[in-house]
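fyi for ur records
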Amino acid sequence: MDATQFALKLAKVIGNPIILFLMAAALFIFLWGIAEYIRGSDSDSVRTTGKQHMLWGLVGLFIMVSAYTILKVLVDTIYK
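which gave:
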């Protein structure tokens, strides 16, 4: 196995599952924020916490989708 095949296998076996797990975690935080926002509609502090969770969940999703896209572009252009 040469370095190119090793890098491809490393990206597929380690990189993709980690990125997908972090995407799922960010989605969970976002959905948790929505639930907090709806459940605590009568309390300003609970709504603020829900808004913060939604914001950070979206930021996390954006970062993970960007990382996945960059990794995919690198693998497709350099190693194929």
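The helical segments are 3-39, 44-78. thats all i got for now
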